[in-house]
User: Fold histidine kinase from Actinomadura meridiana.
Amino acid sequence: MRRSGTITGWGLWPAIGAALAVAGTGEAVWRTGGSGAFLSLAIVVDVCATLPLVLARDRITAAAAIVTVATAAACVLHQGVAVAAVVALVTVWSVLLRRRMLRRRADAAERDASRRRFEHTLLEHTARGERARIARELHDVVAHHISMISVQAETARLAVPGMPAEGATRLLAIGDTARTALTEMRRLLGVLREDAGAEPTRRPQPGLQQLLDLIDETRESGASGVRLIVRGGVAVLDPGVELAAYRIVQEALTNARRHAPGAAVDVDLDYAPGELRVSVRDNGPGPLPDPDTRTAGHGLLGMRERAAAVGGDLRTGPGPVGGFLVEATLPVGAPDE
Assistant:
C-alpha cells in the first residue's frame, strides 16, 4: 500500500484533526472535573475548535473560519486559554497563510514567465519584420544590378560587329542566366511584399546622397541643432551599404528626437580605407542607469540587423562626454564603375 503523505494509509490532516479533537475532549473533561452542566457544551466547543482540521487539505479557508470562531468560544467557556483549540488555531492559520503565499509566488512566477514569453515573441516578430523590410529593399537594389547585367550582355552581343560565335553564345548565356536569376529572386523574395500588404514601390532606395534631405526634414520637425560632418574621401559606395547607413542614421535621429528632445545631434560620416564609419551622437541625458534589456526599444534591434546585413557591426551606449552614441562600422568595396 502506498503511504506517501499519509499515516498508516490515513490522511495526514484527518489524523491531526482527530488527535487534537481527542486532546480537546480530554481538556474539556479535565477543566469541568468530568461532570457538571457544562461538560457536554465544553466537549462540543473543543471538538468544533479542533476537528475541522480534517478539512485542511481541501477546504482550508472554511476550516480556518470554524476553528477561529470555536477557539474564541472555547477560551471564553474555559475562562482561559484552551490549549488544544489554540494549537489548532495556530496550525490552521499557519497553513492557510503559507498556502496563500505560495500561491501568490506561483501566480507571480507564471505572470513573469508569460511576460517573458510575450516579450520574446514580440522581439522575434520585430526582428523578422525588420529582416523582411531589409530583404525587400535589397531586393530592389540587387534586381536593378541583375537587370543591368542582362541588358549589357544583350547590348554587347548585338552591338559588337564581327564578334566570334562563341563570344556571342557566351554573352547570350550570361543574359539568360541573369534573367533566370532575376525571375527566381522575384519569385522567392517578392512574396515579402504580399506578406506586408504593401504595394511595390518604384522609387529608388535612398542612399548617402539623401542624408542632407533627411537632416533638413529633422530640422523642420523642431530639432534645429542637427549637423552633418563628413570626413575622408567621399566615394560612391555599394547601394546596399549606402541604404544601410541611411537607415541607421534615420533611426538614430528618430530615437534622439524621441528620447532627447531639443538636444544637439551630430551625424558623422568617416570614409576610411575599406570601411565606412557612421556615428550619431547627441548631448541629451544619455541611456538609463540600468536599462532592462527586455524592454529595450526595437529601433536598436533594427539598426543592428541592418549593419549585420552588409557584414558590419553596430555599437550603442553613452557618449564619451555624455549623451547617447550610435556607432556603426560598415565594410565597403570598390565603388561602382
